[in-house]
TrEMBL record:
Assigned protein family: Belongs to the SAT4 family.
Organism from which the protein derives: Hymenoscyphus albidus
Keywords from the named record: Membrane, Transmembrane, Transmembrane helix
Name under which the protein is recorded: Rhodopsin domain-containing protein
Rhodopsin domain sequence ranges: 43-219
GO cellular component labels: membrane
Membrane-crossing residue ranges in chain numbering: 26-47, 59-79, 121-139, 151-174, 194-218
Protein location: Membrane
Membrane topology: Multi-pass membrane protein
């Protein structure tokens, strides 16, 4: 755990680096991804309706995943948008170097860090229910005992991943206020450690979920 180094303390190596605004490079892929996800979801509903097939668990679960994804998308857009003021546009700072934003508007940095924990929960929730939707689809398509057992095991493992990731986000700083206020006494987990710790089991479970149906498809 880190007790002295905090993200706020980082400074740009040069003026050019500090002035680099990447907000639009972050927002454009997010907008495209949201449009694709929305289109696919609407097409899914249309197909269900056109063949007069009722919704099942895999459909309901992907709707929940979409809500989590959309909440992250909205947070990112709001944090990256530029709002007009009396003299010039002002951004909430997403995509700019943290040291520059801290110098120009310290309260904005606090606002960004306030969103980290809700964003983390929205992210893992979206990922979890996407995995659960796929597993529910397997359950519906392959009605054999071995598949049912595999699906149940993966449902349990991915749920434990959600609990672990959520707990890690809540305990990323103790007390949590230190996340947005480095002056508060306490300790923080390095963000790199936190994100890699969540990403590794995420990737592993993705791979396992991908290969689960292969034996049944081959036969």
């Amino acid at each position: 755990m880190s007790t002295s180094t905090h993200l706020f303390e980082r400074r740009p190596k040069s003026v050019a680096q500090g002035d680099d605004d990447r907000s639009y490079r972050l927002m454009i892929p997010s907008i495209v991804a949201c449009l694709i996800a929305t289109t696919v979801l609407l097409l899914r509903l249309y197909c269900r309706r056109s063949i007069k097939q009722s919704l099942w668990w895999d459909d309901y679960l992907i709707f929940i995943a979409y809500v989590g994804f959309t909440s992250i998308f909205l947070m990112q857009i709001l944090l990256g948008m530029t709002f007009p003021n009396k003299s010039q546009g002002t951004s909430l700072g997403l995509g700019k170097h943290v040291a520059v934003v801290q110098t120009e508007s310290p309260n904005t940095v606090t606002t960004i860090f306030h969103t980290l924990v809700p964003a983390e929960f929205s992210y893992v929730t979206s990922i979890l229910f996407t995995k659960h939707s796929i597993l529910a689809f397997y359950w519906r398509m392959f009605s054999v005992r071995s598949m049912t057992i595999a699906v149940r095991i993966m449902l349990a493992i991915t749920t434990l991943w959600l609990i672990g990731s959520g707990t890690a986000a809540l305990l990323s700083c103790v007390p949590l206020q230190k996340l947005w206020n480095p002056a508060v006494p306490g300790t923080c987990i390095k963000s790199r450690t936190l994100y890699i710790g969540a990403a590794i089991p995420n990737v592993i479970t993705d791979f396992v979920i991908l290969i689960i149906p292969l034996p049944y498809v081959w036969h």
